């Protein structure tokens, strides 16, 4: 039996999305820049997709630009805002995705910007008083704070951050890769300047994402070419990906309440089952066990280290796919877990659900965990042998 419980890494395609995409892989293969019938047919699809995404976010179509995914959108947002506004100060946090942290680091290496990391409390929440003090001390600031954390699920109070950004005339970029289609976000009501999203996190195709650029901003392109995406991003449009992204977002927004209820119930069921599975010393990272303060689909659990092997690897051998951190960074320790109070003798496992998971699967996962600990009782030393292996 194979169980996929790593939906923060990526999600399977929704059947409605597959149906939408297929014609663009077969008969509707035209290039949107071509002026003949084949091009016109798909150009209209890209236009419709842009309108649809904009409407779902309460934005306007000329504020949405399609990219190859969130990483590209993040690079464009951060580098573009710094260049356009001569920004010399960036505020971010130690638990942002590497796409954000690395882009800021590259900008820092080029010279001209200084980075401040907002204080985090012991559960990984940004301290908004500290953010305010940082903003007061630094005009011309870009704030980069994610909406929902991909490892521990913490949600940021984007509305509060956006109000501070407005009060201090700062630019606010938020990485919504884990929250788009899962959390309500009304761009007409929230002062967000720039935002990034990615289709494969909400049952759309990989290699398709978008950036929202509030229409009061003009930021320079990073990829130059034939003037596609209104000159914001050169390159022939990934038509099937764009059509799939728009459909996936439509389905995710349409079913948001039902999906939220389902994955919340699965997560709470997993918490209840772990409490009685016979393994002592299980804890939860960040806000991940809080129904209000975390993404409904992500549960980050700290387990005592089994005497041999790693839990994630043992679960994989049993056909259960979970993650030891973010599946988006290929090696190294989890910078997110490291930013939280240190737990040296723990193995950290991220379970992330989608609408396709079932309660039976949770039962199976917990039975597997109990079996692994029965066969490998808890390691007695205080040294973690797994902490540095787990993020991939
Ligand atoms: N930001 C967050 C929070 C993510 O979880 C991910 C992917 O895991 C990314 C950015 C990068 O997204 P993409 O795979 O679309 O480049």
TrEMBL record:
InterPro entries attached to this UniProt entry: Aminotrans_V_dom, Aminotrans_V_PyrdxlP_BS, Cysteine_dSase, PyrdxlP-dep_Trfase, PyrdxlP-dep_Trfase_major, PyrdxlP-dep_Trfase_small
Enzyme class: transferase
Domain Aminotransferase class V span(s) in chain numbering: 3-364
Required co-factors: pyridoxal 5'-phosphate
Keyword annotations from UniProtKB, A to Z: Iron, Iron-sulfur, Metal-binding, Pyridoxal phosphate, Transferase
EC code(s) of this entry: 2.8.1.7
Catalytic function, reaction form: (sulfur carrier)-H + L-cysteine = (sulfur carrier)-SH + L-alanine
Family to which this protein belongs: Belongs to the class-V pyridoxal-phosphate-dependent aminotransferase family. NifS/IscS subfamily.
Name of the protein described by the UniProt record: cysteine desulfurase
